[in-house]
Structures are given as C-alpha cells and as structure tokens.
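Entry 14. Structure prediction run on the chain below.
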Amino acid sequence: MKKTSQEESKTWKCSVCGYIYKGNEPPEECPQCSSSSKEYSELKEKQKLGYDGKKFDVLLINGSSHRAHNTGVLTDLAEKTLKSKGVSFRRFNLNELDIQHCWCCYSMRDSACTYPCRNQLDDAPALQEMIVDSKAVIIASPINWNNMSARLKDFLDRLTCLQNLYLLKKEGLTTGKVIGILVNGHEDGGMKTAMDIFIYFQQMGFVLAPFGFMYRTHGAQYNAKTDNDFFKDDEKLKNEVEGIVSNVIETMNLDLETKLKDRIVPVSE
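Output returned:
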C-alpha cells in the first residue's frame, strides 16, 4: 500500500555522519556511512545538555562514533551491571552530543585555562560538572587505528580545565576518584588505547581500579562485519566487563576521595 505524505514526513538524522533521511522509518543502512538504522534518530530541535546538580555515583561514557555498535555492546553490559548492583549512574553516548575541539587556552597563558571551561557553547561543560560531582567514571572506547576515537579524544581534551587546577596551585576537584576503561576493536591496539585514555585521568588524580581496564579484539582475519555478533555472544567479554565494573564499584566504595583529601601531592604535567 502506498504511504501517505503524512507517513513520509518524518526526518531522520544519522548520529555518525549527519546524513538526513526523509521517510516513515530510517534506512536499514545509511547511504552515506553504512551505519545501521540504530544510529538514526528522528530529527528534532536539539537542546544543550545541562546538569541538574543531583549527585550520582558513576558517569558511563560510550566514546565511539557508533552508539549502537561494538562499543555499545560494552556500554550496555556495563550499564546492566551497574543496575544489577543498585549503583546510581548516568550514561552518555558521545556521538549524540555536541563536543567541540578544545580552544587550547592554556597555550596562551597558564591562567587562561579555567574551570568552569571558557567554552560554554556546547555540551562539554555539563559533562565536566558531572565528573566533578560523580565518584567514578567508566569509559568505553573502540580502537581506531591503534588509538581512541577522535570523538573521545575531543571530550578528554576538554577536561584540561580540571587538570589545570593543579598547575595553578588551586584545589583539585578530581583527586581520588576512580576510573575504569573498556576497549574493543577489530585488531591491534587494545592496550595502547586503554593506556592513552588512562593517562588523561591519571593526570587529574584519578585512581585506576585494580584490574581496571580490559580489551577484546576479534581479529584481522575476520571480516569486520562479523565483529558485532562476536562481541554480543562472547562470554569472556561479558565476564570481563562485569568484572571491571565490579572492581570500579568496590574501589569507589572505599571512598578514597575523602580519605586521601589533603594527603596527596599533585604531580601533573
């Protein structure tokens, strides 16, 4: 039966590449970047991300360009574990947010890099506030050419304003918080990606939970199209993600942020 003009009036946007599609349902595959229909959302006026000030335990970040693909599997598993353990959390998929490049104010002069961040034009300031108010952060990242995604790096670059507090001899707002890192990819680069992410948080005084990061790759000998089914069905991946999240929770419950207050010497570059 022919669709009515009303049925065809919906407008969809791919969260990966920004392609605009008109129709009753999004396309099964994005004609521009080949992402699945799960990456499409109905196009509506976007509101700037805000933070309501209600404290919670864990900030969960999906740092992939694909919110519903391989890294989404890790993030979903982490979310499931947090829920099962009754831990308060907030989850964000970076490809749904507006995170601009860092302005690199620090390169002008030390004191130009401030918290709150000078760039209040996008969604990064709300995430910065949540990092300050939460007790732990869990980052899920793909391996993009032996490194994290460009989206995730842009977000981490925007945390410079928090790291710079130590360099300005001001009170740090993140010392003793806990970090856990989840990485997946097609082939090499898992350990490097995890360490590259960790360095950002180490420079902000975060503590890596014991056995605090994991990575899982499928292998270059397989077609990348088969990766998603592999990750969804892999028991080792499920067990390790649950283990990382549990380790983050146990470390977080030690309340190191309070116990170490005024006892830690910031050494930050």
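The CA atoms of residues 63 and 151 lie 7 Å apart.
Filed with the rest of this week's runs.
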